[in-house]
């Protein structure tokens, strides 16, 4: 866990008094908490505005206290937007989950996010959305910060490998994930998956790699 904690520190803001209000944005004076509440609203436009504002706030100010207090619910709401929301919601939500994983100092929270994202992306209902670059980026970032050991990292590498090279032996472990990416019409996604796989490989010490999984 020491290694994970060192990862946590690379993106922390030195301003521990980060506040939830958005003084730098024009328009009605609303706090981050107000936009957080809007995520559960029924109007798609309100959810998109809330996601956009939260994304800007996390990018510009790294709202540490807001993240720590609302991490679990934010991940849940963002996963809901990925599953049920518009393409705009889905992309913004995926980006937010990645940022949350980088900002939080809690190893337990980010590991839970890793498990939740992996579980969600293993469901058949998200098959078409696997071609979205933001989703692949989200999975890669959450794995980097949230996987607690090399086996968990390799489980995502296998998932990606099954998409890159359908029909491999590990496809039985993720039956709903195999044969989803068509190379002929997704060159950008294929490139992103290969890059993600290579990046995750670089995070594993060679002696910890299960070589039997990558033979042949």
UniProtKB/TrEMBL annotation:
Organism, scientific name: Gossypium lobatum
Record Pfam families: IFRD
Source organism superkingdom: Eukaryota
InterPro entries recorded: IFRD, Interferon-rel_develop_reg_N
Protein name according to UniProt: Interferon-related developmental regulator N-terminal domain-containing protein
Residue ranges occupied by any Interferon-related developmental regulator N-terminal domain in the UniProt entry: 28-215
